[in-house]
Write a structure and sequence with these properties.
The chain is mostly helical. The chain has five helices and two strands; from the N terminus they run ααααββα. Helices cover 54% and strands 4% of the residues.
């Protein structure tokens, strides 16, 4: 296998999770809908707020790469739902599906042999696709770990036992 294929496979593994950290599907699996609006201890956001933040940030990174006219949300407010905003089970499902759809587009970008990871993004010369894929994977892993930790703290069917 050549270096290009190795890089693509490693980036896909990082995006999907499952090596050093849990993947998205496992982190949200069987999440009790009665708890999606539960605020984190000593915090100002709910579990759904966190999930929606992960989705928004991943969308922002992806759209930045593929859309020359992309406008990022205003930081930090545009990256989080409103403090008092509540989600229905439908909102939760829409967030999950939106995250998964954008992740598939990122994965497709990584798999595409025409994707140049090292050259500058044409409309953002100071950035590379490699940097943005790593940024998305890093941000996702960080907050998915937080989500799994919150499930344990809130005693919401911990995903695995030690």
């Amino acid at each position: 296998m050549d270096k290009d294929q190795v890089l693509r496979q490693e980036l896909l593994a990082l995006l999907k999770g499952g090596n050093a950290h849990m993947g998205f599907a496992d982190a949200v699996s069987d999440f009790p809908m009665k708890a999606i609006n539960t605020k984190v201890p000593n915090g100002s956001y709910t579990v759904w707020h966190l999930l929606e933040h992960i989705r928004i940030a991943q969308w922002d990174i992806l759209d930045f790469v593929i859309n020359p006219d992309h406008q990022s949300p205003k930081f930090p407010d545009g990256y989080w739902p409103g403090v008092d905003e509540k989600a229905s089970p439908g909102h939760w499902k829409k967030t999950v599906k939106g995250f998964q759809a954008d992740l598939k587009v990122l994965e497709k970008l990584v798999k595409d042999p025409q994707t140049d990871f090292f050259g500058p993004i044409p409309h953002a010369k100071d950035y590379t696709i490699l940097r943005e894929v790593l940024l998305a994977a890093d941000h996702n892993a960080y907050h998915l770990g937080e989500l799994v930790g919150l499930r344990r703290i809130l005693n919401l069917k911990p995903i695995f036992e030690y």
